[in-house]
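Sample intake sheet
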Amino acid sequence: MLIQYHEFQTGDVISINPNHVVCVFLGKDPKTQEKTTFINMINGNIAVSEDYYVVVERIGLSKL
């Protein structure tokens, strides 16, 4: 199952395989210094527009 999020800078929809998520954390976008939610994947981070709790909930629900 893939989960859809909105990429932070472009607003484009991205699909993430929750089996490859290592962690979710709040941080500042390195380019804009705006606070955002990051999804840490096996091969790097993805900044998304969704709230931290929404991201974690979707990942958790995908495991049910």
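Comment: Helices lie at 52-62. The domain at 3-62 is CATH 2.40.50 (OB fold (Dihydrolipoamide Acetyltransferase, E2P)).
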